[in-house]
Amino acid sequence: xxxxxxxxxxxxxxxxxxxDKDVVYSKPIxxxxxxxxxxxxxxxxxxxxxxxxxxxxxxxxxxxxSNLLLKIILSYIEDNNVEKSNKLLxxxxxxxxxxxxxDYIHFIKIKANxxxxxxxYRNQVKIIRTIDMCDSFLNTFKDSKYTKDVIDLKNSxxxxxxxxxxxxxxxxxxxxxxxxxxxxxKKIDPNFLDNQPKNFFRNLFE
Length: 206
Prior knowledge:
By secondary structure, the chain is an all-alpha fold. The protein is built from eleven helices and no strands.
């Protein structure tokens, strides 16, 4: 009797595993697309990406895989999760990058980094790194239709960098450190420095 019960439970367990597997795998394209779109609507972006991985694994030749991945990436950017969006942009480039979209993907990465910078003095490294990304873009994609946008973003970032250097200059001036003052005066655009209001530093770092 015991052996019979054990056999029954074993069969039920195997049957249950098989049923679960059927739920997760071997689904048509519409199933995964619907789940991904629902996940995005519910702001469950990590699950949306997991479902995308299932879709792309089971239906590798589906022509809209790249569009779905980009939709997830743009949702991460809208959610201000730049770290995740940057990683997925690299994934996108490795899988779907080509001559017709590579400049756009790099532009998106620059714009996402730019838009994520709020308090400038806390984002010094990110500002400098993103300016370098702008320079790389302008040198690599000379005829891109996004060139003007990247120049605008670089100008905005340069202003932020000047703000940081002004703050550091003010610190050295308060400490009467001539070497530091001399160094940072050279880093700041003179026109930028001359055009700041007297309460500029206080307003910037309050």
